[in-house]
Structure formats: structure tokens, C-alpha cells
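INFO batch 0412 | record 1 of 1 | parsing
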Amino acid sequence: GFLHITTRRVEQDGQTRYESGGVWTRGLYEPTFGYIEARIKLHAQIGHWAALWLNCASMGDPVGDPARGGVETDIMEFHHRMRHGHAIQHNLHWDGYGEYHKSRGHEVTVQHLTDEFHTFGLLWTPDEYVFFVDGVETFRVHQDDGGAISHRPEYLILSMEVGNWAGDIAQATLPDGIVVDWVRVWQLAATTDPPQ
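INFO prediction complete | emitting C-alpha cells
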């Protein structure tokens, strides 16, 4: 079957709130290096966004050493404000989320995101990240080009989040969400010891 991650509008006691969700492998499966790929049909409405990403509990600690501190790696992030719903982003965030935060990203045009399934993949090696959409390379970040490459075990996250960054959720026709056909992970043989 499919995994559905859905955003809903909930009216209760005269208040409107929004519920969404996600799944993660934290504490269950946290690979270091490998190839991660998921087949997903994305949502059709504004006001929320979907992501397939990696993170670790130590992200940003220590500052200045993303190999040891970890990197938030957004394999795919999507909301309808990007090229009117025809683009996804690949993003890296490191050195925490505060004053030392650094990031790098790339936007990729992809047609039919909300009415067809697409695959989103990441090859993660000790030296680089290589991103793919539908089996085609779309972005490459190498550590020698200023890329922040994690050497930490990182957990996988599939999520839907609500926020004004993605548009006014009050204007959305809900429920709405993503449909995940599958997620596959191939782990590379370790070439270095994980940081302590």
C-alpha cells in the first residue's frame, strides 16, 4: 500500500487549527553514507510543504565542522510558491539553526509534481552529495567546493509542515497531502570511522 501524509483543518471550540505529520527513523535506522530514494506524488495546495530529508541530533555541534556536527540534508523540499508548483529544492543546512547557521541549495524545475509520482534520490559519500530527480542528476555538492558533508549517522524523515512560508493555509482546500509509494536505502560500506 501507499503511505499518505495529510494536512487537515480541524474546527474545535470555535478555533481553527491544522494537523499534519510525518515519519522518521530516529533511533531505529541511522545510516552513514549510501543511496536514499523515494517515490512520491506531491500535494496540490498552498500553505504547507513536503520534505524528504536527513538530520541528526548533534546537527551544528561542533560549529565549523559539519563532518562531525552533521548536516540537515533536504533531498527534496516542495511547496507551491516555488515556480507556481513546478519546482523542488535540494538544501543543505549546517552549523546549527542559530547565529552560525549556513546553508546551500538548488532549485529544480519538475513538471507534473502533484499528479504523477516522481523519484527523489541522494547519493551520499564521504566527499560529496549527488541529488537526483527521476534518475537524473540535478545537483552535486563536493567538500572541496565548500560543501558541508556529514560523516555522522543520520535519520531519514518524510514530513508535511504547515507555515506561512508556503502560503496562506487558510486558502487551501483540505485535506491534502503527499502519497509515498516506497522508500529505499542502500548503505555504502564505511570508508571512515564515524566521529566520536
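INFO post-check: Helices lie at 66-69.
INFO record closed
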